[in-house]
Please model this.
Amino acid sequence: MVGWLIVNSFVDSPKFHELYDFLARAARAHHIKVEIKTTDALLSPLDCHFGDVCLPDFVLFWDKDIYLARRLEAEGIPLFNSAKAIELCDNKIFTALALEGCVKTPKTIIAPKTFEGLGYTKKDFIKKAIALLGLPMVIKEAYGSFGKQVYLAHSFEEASAMVDQIGHKDFLMQEYIAQSHGKDVRINVVGGKVVASILRYNDHDFRSNISNGGSMKPYTPTPAQAHAACQACDRLGLDFAGVDILFGEEDEPIVCEVNSNPHFKSTFDAIGIDMSMSIMAHIKGKLS
Model:
């Protein structure tokens, strides 16, 4: 069995290369030959079907280039995760829409659409959102990673300034879950089963992301938390994911975000469980 591990051409940092190494080692452990391909290496005209390249048995798509993912699927190649699943997770608005009625999520309002060169010239919608969601209010850009495009507004003035900073980009507004300030549970799911989880916490920020200075420790999810994580993955069509669960009242699980390309090295550092081994076992099992 031969697979491609597709990675972004322009993301060049040690923490990403470390993940790629984990995945390549896991492939070898399962007797799978994996070739690492950067997205620019597959550059070709649309009508050339990737030229004379020998296509793989599967693709482990560790990127968010939906256009390339769809082209590969059009060639009949199984993708893990699929183009649709990655697209739903990459855009927080799509995620919220897809999870509606499936699992409990923060109460959410999608900002009205604007365009480049116009921006959000009218702010009455922010006042309406505050009236419905309360303060403080969470503002999230549709696209973002590691918590960097997530903000907490304590007033209309703060929210307005944040919207000005966002410019013309799409975003959503969500209720602030006070019980989960600075903490959440990262649950890693593979093949519909929980394989590892950690508690993430930050005493200095409402976001728990490790990259923002958060800490982590081993954590055993409650049955309700595990069920919510697996339900979210099933609804989004994911083979594997990292699901972030907030603590609601009486610890009711609230699904915050779902990551189709989870940075599982943090989980490995905390509890020694290598998610890449489960991912490769899942792929091998589905294709056998």
Remarks:
- The chain is about 35% helix and 25% strand.
- Residues 2-84 form a domain with the Rossmann fold fold (CATH 3.40.50.20).
